[in-house]
Structures are given as structure tokens and as C-alpha cells.
């Protein structure tokens, strides 16, 4: 009985080991994000001409970038979202033709970036602020040949 | 019987984990909030700031001011079988000097939420 169980264990181990190449599988989904989103609700406390940079930084954190523009200073917060999908359409051949398994990888993805921009005057009071939403432009793409 | 079941269970678990990876990385030095609080507006100079925080990663000229930019990136990446997700968080510190080289403003603060290890690349069903 003991010997039989050991044999079963050995067979299962060998079976799993032979599937080592399956760890990555025929399909792959990958996602990459840089920082976290800032929503319109997060910035309703900002009142142009009254809110200063300290109040903004206290609520939203430090910006990713500070730029100069004429007599004002521009701060920018970024959120970047990247998505990638890949499918190996030749993967199934290994079960039909064990000695030759051609890889046929097709897939794609994209990267989109949201920006929240705050402009300050020379006294560090908010002059204006604006969003640019582009993170939804990233998507998992299964078929790269479409228009 | 019991012993072989345990061995079998451990082998299955070990084999199932072979497609997993969790990786951590960072870029730049993490600036402690304590170091930043020693910088005093209207008093500290460029030399004082450099002595506390070191040389800046970038220097920016903006509207007659000089800005020292320090940054630090933290990366957490998780992969489980066919799913993979990499999260990156940046922490930035800006020290703004007036025309005479004295600190006018310190822009420092953590972005919301901690950085998490994740492997699930989709927004659903958790959002």
C-alpha cells in the first residue's frame, strides 16, 4: 500500500514537472501602474485664489513635477496605467506534435496617463487647476492587426 | 499513509508555487520626513539643505526661483501563473529658494495609500 502511494506521488510529481512550461501558460496578462488616481472628489477643497500650496500638498501629497510658466508655477500629478496581453496561438500544437511546438505570439497593450495640474501665482495661491484623463486609453489587446 | 499524504501535499503546493514571483525594488534614497522638517522657511540656505538632504536629483529654474528636486521610487511586483502586476509609487520633495538663496517653500508629502503587492491585473471584480 505504502509503495503504491509512493508510486502515485512519483507519477504526479513527474506529471507536474513535465508541465513546467505551463507555468507561464498560453496567455499572459500584465499590468503596470505608476502612482494612484486622483479623482475630482479629491480636489473639491481647492478654491482658486484662496487655497495655498501647503493645503494642496497636505491633502494630495507632493506633485511629481514643478514647471515654470511666465509669472506662475505649474505643479503636475501623474497617474500612469499600462496594460499588456499576449497569447501564444501555437501553444496547443505541443499536444498534437510533441517534438515540434511552434510559438505564435500575438497580443498588445497600451499606456495611458492621467494628469492633474495646479497653477500657482507668485504668492503660492492656486490660480487654477485642471484634469486630463487618458489612462483609459490603455487596454489589453488580443488581436494586434485591427485598425 | 498519513506521512505519504503529507509529502504528496507538500509537493503539490511546492509545484503550484513554481509560477509565482514577488519582487521589490526602489530607486533613489528614501528621504525621511524628519530630515525635511529640519529645513526652515526663511532661514535655511542652499548649503543647509544640501547638508541635510544631500545633492538634489534635479535643479529647476522657475520664475526667478531655484528649486531642488529630490525623488524616490518604490516598486512592488507580483506574478502568479499568467497574471502579473507591477505597482510603482513616487515620493518627491521640492525645496524652493528665493532669489537670495534662502528657502521660500518646502513641498513634501506622501501620496495617498500605501503601495501594495498585487498580481491581479484587472479592475474587476474588486472595483
Offer a quick outline of the entry:
The complex is a heterodimer of chains A (147) and B (127). Chain A has 147 residues and is of the alpha+beta class. In chain A, 20% of the residues lie in helices and 36% in strands.
What does this structure look like?
The complex is a heterodimer of chains A (147) and B (127). Chain A has one domain (26-132). In chain A, 20% of the residues lie in helices and 36% in strands. Chain A is built from three helices and five strands. In chain A, strands 1, 2, 3, 4 and 5 form a five-stranded antiparallel β-sheet that branches. Chain A is elongated. The termini of chain A are far apart. The model of chain A is unreliable at 18-22 (pLDDT under 50). Chain B is an alpha+beta fold and 127 residues long. Helix content of chain B is 22%, strand content 39%. Chain B has three helices and five strands. In chain B, strand 4 and strand 5 form a beta hairpin. The mean pLDDT of chain B is 86. At the A-B interface, helix 1, strand 1, helix 2, strand 2 and strand 3 of A face helix 1, strand 2, strand 3, strand 4 and strand 5 of B.
Count of folded domains of chain A = 1
Q: Which segments of chain B are poorly predicted (pLDDT under 50) over 5 or more consecutive residues?
A: none
- How many β-strand runs of chain B? 5
- Biggest chain-to-chain interface with counts: A-B, 45 and 42 residues
Structural key phrases:
heterodimer, A: 147 residues, alpha+beta, 5-stranded antiparallel β-sheet, 3 helices, 36% strand, elongated, B: 127 residues, 5 strands
Layout of helices and strands, plus pairs?
The complex is a heterodimer of chains A (147) and B (127).
Chain A: H1 2-18, E1 27-34, H2 53-60, E2 65-69, E3 72-88, H3 93-96, E4 105-120, E5 126-132
Antiparallel strand pairs in A: 1-3, 2-3, 3-4, 4-5
Chain B: H1 2-16, E1 20-27, H2 33-37, H3 46-53, E2 58-62, E3 65-80, E4 83-97, E5 103-108
Amino acid at each position: 500500500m505504502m509503495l503504491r502511494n509512493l508510486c502515485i506521488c512519483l507519477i504526479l510529481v513527474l506529471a507536474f514537472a513535465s508541465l513546467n512550461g505551463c507555468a507561464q501558460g498560453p496567455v499572459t496578462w500584465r499590468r503596470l501602474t505608476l502612482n494612484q488616481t486622483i479623482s475630482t472628489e479629491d480636489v473639491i477643497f481647492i478654491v482658486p485664489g484662496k487655497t495655498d500650496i501647503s493645503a494642496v500638498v497636505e491633502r494630495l501629497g507632493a506633485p511629481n513635477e514643478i514647471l515654470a510658466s511666465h509669472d506662475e508655477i505649474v505643479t503636475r500629478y501623474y497617474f500612469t496605467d499600462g496594460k499588456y496581453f499576449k497569447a501564444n496561438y501555437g501553444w496547443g500544437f505541443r499536444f498534437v506534435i510533441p517534438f515540434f511546438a511552434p510559438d505564435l505570439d500575438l497580443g498588445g497593450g497600451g499606456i495611458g496617463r492621467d494628469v492633474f495640474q495646479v497653477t500657482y501665482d507668485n504668492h503660492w495661491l492656486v490660480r487654477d487647476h485642471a484634469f486630463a484623463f487618458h489612462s483609459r486609453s490603455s487596454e489589453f489587446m488580443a488581436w494586434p492587426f485591427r485598425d | 499513509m498519513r506521512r505519504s499524504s503529507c509529502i504528496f501535499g507538500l509537493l503539490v503546493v511546492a509545484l503550484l508555487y513554481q509560477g509565482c514571483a514577488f519582487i521589490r525594488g526602489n530607486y533613489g534614497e528614501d528621504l525621511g520626513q524628519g530630515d525635511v522638517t529640519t529645513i526652515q522657511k526663511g532661514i535655511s540656505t542652499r548649503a543647509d539643505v544640501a547638508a541635510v538632504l544631500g545633492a538634489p536629483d534635479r535643479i529647476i529654474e522657475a520664475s526667478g526661483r531655484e528649486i531642488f528636486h529630490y525623488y524616490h521610487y518604490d516598486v512592488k511586483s507580483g506574478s502568479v501563473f499568467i497574471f502579473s502586476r507591477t505597482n510603482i509609487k513616487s515620493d518627491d520633495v521640492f525645496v524652493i529658494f528665493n532669489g537670495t538663496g534662502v528657502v521660500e517653500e518646502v513641498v513634501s508629502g506622501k501620496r495617498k495609500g500605501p503601495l501594495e503587492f498585487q498580481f491581479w491585473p484587472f479592475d474587476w471584480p474588486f472595483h
